[in-house]
Design the sequence.
């Protein structure tokens, strides 16, 4: 287990861009050369509220895309929904603000060594890290299909430039206000039945990840999902963001979504035991 | 000239006065990326029990004004795996190690002490008799004078006289000085003050307790004045008993406050969640503040708030 957090750096990063995109904010931070250690699926832990803040815990956000070119040397993009007091503070920061961050953190998505048929499934702004992933998969010669879903049109995050990296993009909303009315699980069932998928990469609400895991159970399709559990520290010391996960031998233990995840094998996560008291291992 | 920051807790000597707090550093590996563990006083490991333990259901945390509630429930690998994997790694890093233990019965504490007695390299044992995250509040030994005495007495008899015992106490008592005297009588060499305070948050969406375990331990700067008060009271009653102070320390200023109240060393807990470099940062700031006030050593500052002014 040594080497935990081995790429993580604490730094003060300049907020170089803050734009509203639908119901979300696209925030771009100058992090310099360390951006080369960042992988899709990694996250950043951001201190919120300023020096005298009563918010003592960092907020964890998926890193959606990185750029190692341009005026700043290296930047990372984060898509933030201003829902709570910490994310609202972050989204209210003007360009030029100095932001205290720790990155990159967490286990990234696994990238196949040979071309495969990849299906990327995003729920709400969970789609954000999938666009950076799509670019890398495309570069490796993979076929990249993307399905995005949300309750309503305003919660779909699908930037124009991101669409270039995917072969197909389909959008589903529960109220039918954008794309097809329905849920992302409907088309996944069809694609699986047609043997069109080798690997599913997913990011979004836990209910969606659980539903996809149910669809891929008893198939050869690998399901790499980025889980979402509330974290206090993001670096593995607080033990709050745990999930029940089986090992190869079937023994279930509480794994930390910060350092053992956020990307996990959907087939090993014990979705029905989330939020339960685990039975004692004998 | 650099200031002498060394300190002692019972017979254990430490070159530096800032420690991690039990449960806020896991077993140390996670923090090693952020600062060299041997530069602080010691790593105080997460309280370990006899068997592997899953802990309480999620959600396990809620942020509160200048603090947080946690309800982890002592998730851990069990003492055998801990001694096989975690302690040797910490010693390889040349970190000093204080092992924190927790039990469900008086006998479990003694049997944990028996396993630790034979382990070379450990600086001290923290006996956590005050974890609030147990199913039965009757198990919080530190809230019951007889139970607190029985646990510390059992550990002392098992250990013999060698390893220092640090008894970790709860502030959720009517008279912390009384409990402190009882555990010192039973053989504790030092006291860890304070553990978290029992609290609750109700989620307004579900309109039920937010934490899976319903109640949780409150920590962070919100509780610091409680820690300062507890340390001040206990130091006033027993000035010779060393205190490892903790409770909301996030800066060198906070650490100095606890030392002036009577702490011989200071643990950084919740602040590490917000900043994994907090222990080393606090230690650097503390050194500067002591120097700026004309202290030649940390020891001169311990309990300085109690001094009687003379002409």
Sequence:
């Amino acid at each position: 287990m040594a080497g935990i957090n081995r790429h993580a750096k604490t730094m003060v990063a300049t907020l170089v861009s803050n734009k509203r995109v639908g119901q979300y904010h696209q925030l771009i931070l100058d992090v310099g050369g360390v951006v080369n250690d960042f992988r899709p699926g990694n996250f950043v832990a951001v201190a919120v509220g300023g020096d005298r803040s009563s918010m003592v815990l960092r907020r964890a956000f998926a890193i959606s895309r990185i750029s190692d070119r341009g005026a700043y040397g290296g930047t990372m993009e984060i898509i933030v929904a201003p829902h709570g007091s910490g994310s609202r503070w972050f989204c209210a920061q003007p360009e030029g603000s100095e932001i205290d961050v720790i990155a990159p953190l967490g286990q990234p998505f696994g990238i196949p060594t040979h071309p495969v048929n990849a299906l990327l499934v995003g729920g709400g702004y969970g789609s954000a890290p999938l666009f950076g992933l799509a670019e890398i998969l495309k570069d490796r010669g993979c076929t990249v299909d993307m399905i995005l879903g949300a309750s309503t049109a305003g919660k779909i995050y699908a930037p124009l430039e991101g669409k270039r990296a995917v072969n197909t993009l389909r959008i589903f909303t529960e109220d039918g206000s954008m794309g097809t009315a329905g849920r992302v699980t409907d088309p996944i069932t069809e694609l699986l039945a047609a043997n069109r998928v080798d690997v599913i990469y997913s990011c979004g609400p836990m209910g969606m990840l659980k539903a996809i895991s149910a669809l891929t159970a008893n198939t050869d399709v690998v399901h790499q999902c980025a889980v979402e559990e509330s974290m206090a520290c993001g670096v593995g010391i607080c033990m709050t963001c745990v999930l029940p996960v089986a090992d190869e031998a079937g023994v279930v233990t509480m794994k930390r979504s910060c350092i053992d995840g956020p990307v996990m094998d959907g087939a090993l996560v014990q979705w029905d035991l989330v939020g339960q008291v685990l039975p004692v291992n004998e | 000239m650099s200031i002498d920051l060394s300190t002692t807790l019972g017979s254990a000597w430490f070159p530096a006065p800032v420690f991690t707090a039990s449960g806020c550093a896991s077993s140390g590996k996670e923090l090693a990326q952020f600062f060299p563990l041997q530069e602080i006083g010691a790593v105080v490991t997460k309280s370990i029990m006899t068997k592997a333990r899953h802990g309480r259901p999620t959600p396990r945390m809620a942020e509160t004004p200048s603090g947080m509630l946690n309800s982890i429930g002592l998730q851990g690998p069990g003492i055998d795996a801990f001694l096989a994997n975690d302690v040797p790694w910490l010693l390889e890093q040349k970190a000093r190690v204080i092992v924190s233990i927790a039990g469900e019965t008086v006998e479990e504490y003694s049997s944990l002490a028996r396993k630790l007695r034979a382990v070379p390299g450990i600086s001290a044992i923290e006996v956590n008799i005050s974890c609030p995250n147990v199913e039965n509040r009757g198990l919080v030994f530190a809230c019951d004078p007889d139970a607190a005495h029985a646990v510390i007495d059992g550990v002392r008899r098992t250990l013999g006289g060698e390893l220092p015992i640090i008894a970790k106490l709860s502030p959720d008592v009517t008279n912390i000085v009384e409990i402190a005297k009882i555990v010192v009588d039973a053989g504790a060499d030092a006291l860890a003050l304070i553990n978290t305070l029992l609290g609750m948050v109700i989620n307004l969406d579900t309109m039920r307790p937010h934490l899976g375990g319903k109640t949780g331990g409150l920590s962070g700067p919100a509780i610091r004045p409680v820690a300062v008060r507890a340390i001040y009271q206990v130091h006033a009653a027993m000035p010779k008993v060393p205190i490892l102070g903790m409770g909301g320390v996030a800066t060198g200023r906070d650490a100095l406050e606890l030392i002036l109240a009577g702490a011989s060393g200071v643990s950084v807990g919740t602040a590490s969640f917000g900043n994994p470099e907090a222990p080393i940062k606090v230690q650097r700031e503390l050194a500067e503040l002591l120097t700026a006030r004309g202290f030649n050593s940390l020891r001169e500052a311990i309990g300085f708030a109690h001094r009687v002014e003379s002409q």
In short: Chain A has a mean pLDDT of 93. Chain A touches chain B at residues 1-2, 4-6, 8, 10, 47, 54-58, 102, 229-230, 232-233, 235-243, 253-254, 259, 274-278, 280-281 (CB under 8 Å). The CA atoms of residues 49 and 181 of chain A lie 39 Å apart.
